[in-house]
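Hey, I'm writing a tutorial for new members on how sequence and structure tokens pair up, and I'd like a real worked example in the thread rather than a made-up one. If someone can provide the structure for the chain below, I'll link this post from the tutorial.
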Amino acid sequence: MWMVEPSSVDHHTHFVVIHVDTIFHSVHLIPVYGTDMLPLTIKSHHVLNIFTLFYVNKYANHHAFKIAC
């Protein structure tokens, strides 16, 4: 798996707005956990603000779990 981290310029987070047509497919970002226990108050919407390094699972296929009609 690849590893990614948020972009920063002079210790300030760098954000870029991209056009939706430039997205090829989705991926899973899996946080690189440390050795400490995480507080139970952490929710999924906190993850991008708390963790600084992620594994990229480019093989995630959200369509594999659809039920065929």
